[in-house]
Amino acid sequence: MKLLYSGKTKDVYELEDGNYLLKFKDDVTGENGVFDPGANTVGLTIEGAGAAGLRLTKFFFEKLKEKNIPTHYMDANLEEATMTVVPATVFGEGLEVICRYRAVGSFLKRYGKYVKEGQALDAFVEVTLKDDERQDPPISEDALDMVGILTKEEYHTLKELTQQIAQVVKDELAKKDVELYDIKLEFGRDANNNILLIDEISGGNMRAYKDGKYIEPLELEKIIVS
Ligand SMILES: Nc1ncnc2c1ncn2[C@@H]1O[C@H](COP(=O)(O)OP(=O)(O)OP(=O)(O)O)[C@@H](O)[C@H]1O
Ligand SMILES: [Mg+2]
User: Fold this and answer.
1) Structure pTM?
2) Which atom of ligand 1 is nearest to the CA of 132?
3) Looking at residue 70, which CATH number applies to its domain?
4) pLDDT tens digit string along 46-92?
5) Where is the SAICAR synthetase/ADE2 N-terminal domain (predicted)?
6) What total number of domains does the chain contain?
7) Ligand 1: which residues within 6 Å by Cβ?
């Protein structure tokens, strides 16, 4: 097995058969020991965080499979905290696609002059560039097309898939009286150029609230998977 990339929260290996193996680590993003799903640095290490992230990811990717939504998921090994996936190439050097149901986080920071904290948003989709050096800047459909990262057609495919996937997650959380405020997804292309959901869907990629209170990733895993 060959280590291809060591990320903030996962390591990516190439398997003998060409598939990839994602190893979920106990590192979580945040700043100064406080968890923040929007942060670009590892803020703390929590024992069991990797396994919990994988359990939620497995749960959601299996739901998406039932609904025939294309993803990279093949299988998961919960003891090892690893997941086997279809290798994908990302758009440009990587994009994050965010779907928002309430105004919090970076959206509120940017548009606070015009929106109230927690204001309802209608599955609003926005794309950001994975560019730590430039704090993951948001990018418009026109700009994505102009710089050659996505065609307009691909943009619309991504937007639609994002809203479908976010709705699946939102509905699952709602079954446990948890409300999804926002979620961040990643996509790539497989060897046949099909667009797939890649990476993970765990507490670290979303903001979930119960009775108006933010639910930490480990707590979310307990509520949703058990
Ligand atoms: N099926 C896949 N094929 C190729 N790359 C993938 C696939 N699934 C996930 N990845 C990539 O693997 C990496 C996982 O590592 P991790 O989530 O720790 O990265 P990260 O430190 O958050 O860095 P990044 O800012 O790139 O997400 C991400 O860069 C993600 O885009
Ligand atoms: Mg990541």
Assistant:
1) 0.95
2) 25
3) 3.30.200.20
4) 889 999 999 999 999 999 999 999 999 999 999 999 999 999 999 99
5) 3-214
6) 2
7) 5, 7-10, 12, 20, 72, 85-88, 90, 94, 130, 186, 188, 198-199
